[in-house]
Specification:
By secondary structure, the protein is an alpha+beta fold. It has one domain: Alpha-Beta Plaits. It is built from two helices and four strands. Strand 2 and strand 3 form a beta hairpin.
Amino acid sequence: MAKVPSIDLDGCTDCDGCIEICPEVFQRNETMGYVEVIELEEYPEEEVLDAINICPGDCIGWEYV
């Protein structure tokens, strides 16, 4: 079972903190206007945890797929 970061867009404040902390995982979809997770084979756990910890909307978490 793989662990993948996910974003609850309803809680997202669009602060871009996750992009600043972890640009290899998070990016802004300019067309749609929201932050999204970049599809990767593996995700850097420590960097994603940093993004989870600084998120003011508490909207980033792990999803098991």
